[in-house]
Structure of Fe2OG dioxygenase domain-containing protein:
Amino acid sequence: MATTAPTGSPLSQPSLTHPPPPRKLTTVKALSESPGLSSIPSIYTFPKQTYHEPVSDTKEPIPTIDFSLLTSSHPGQRSKTIRELGKACRNWGFFMVTNHGVPERMMKAIIEVCREFFELSEEEKRGIGGKHVLDPIRFGTSFNESVDEILCWRDYVKIFQHPEFHSPKKPPSFREIALEYSKRVRLVAREIIRGISESLGLEKDYIDETLNLENGLQLIAANLYPPCPRPELAMGLPPHSDHGLLTLLIQNQIGGLQVQHKGKWLNIDPIPNSFLANIGDHIEILSNGKYKSVLHRAVVNNRDVRISIAVPHGPALDAIVSPASKLVEDVGNPPAYGAMKYKEYLELQQGTMLNGKSCLERIRNGD
Ligand code: OGA
Ligand code: NI
């Protein structure tokens, strides 16, 4: 039991056996609105050599998948698109999705209602949701504010949409807009995942059935990147890969996403009204490393507020993910990753500091 020294004695320091009280961080939004802000607190300064590697100037365009051809009843068109999808997953891990059928007005509405959410008072935002990765609503700043040693120039809200739908109470229109948007996006994601399954030489519904996507996890993760007076010192999001199977991202016209490709960082300028898709760690596991969950990051700028809405789609929380047996046996490849429940992976990722690497390295076999 900890003993307490009399007050006023030099021994009345906080005992080391007690965890420090949780940090009460201000949001980046509030910080960026401080009058006359011309520099940034040192806790937002990332070491130059680690994260600010040069950006590639190649103009190699990222692959585009025409969703309408993926769902085409013309078998030739569909199989050609599936081959392109497989190639995009193998070579890039990222691709644009056009002709997806989600109306432009819904994409605009979700961005605007998330902007309104971030405009709520600090007290209102801080008062909602929990702090744990499995809490259905989570508002916060940085990446994982309880463990980050350097803070990211980003505020976020993450809201479970499926298998159970959740919504903050404010703004009042959030519920209806999010429900409609997430339903439509989930249909697109599930169809792409079917295509990915086929592109791996598996049954079309293999991933859907094995990982119980009927009860699959889907979140809305809204990111706010306020203007930063020293963008070259800060990071919106440092390099990371996404958990889950497939993330579909949109943004308000303002760029900032960079993707690692052939060892270099590439700026991504999405085609308007398209989704930027990336495969997540659990496709890498399921494919036994054939498809890689690629590192990406978000940089910030000193002019415009950037908002991005990422919608990750994962297995059911209780599903155990391991390399597909067909991909392991057929090629005589030993499984490169251990089996793990999706829910446990999420907890592992939340407890891990971002160190420029993917959390996947923690469950890779033999290295
Ligand atoms: C994410 C993410 C990138 C962006 O939310 O996981 O990578 O451009 N976002 O905001
Ligand atoms: Ni991401």
Summary: The chain has one domain: 55-363. Residues 221, 223, 237, 242, 256-257, 296, 298, 308, 310 surround N-oxalylglycine (ligand 1) (CB under 6 Å). Residues 174-199 form the longest helix (26 residues). The longest strand covers residues 155-162.
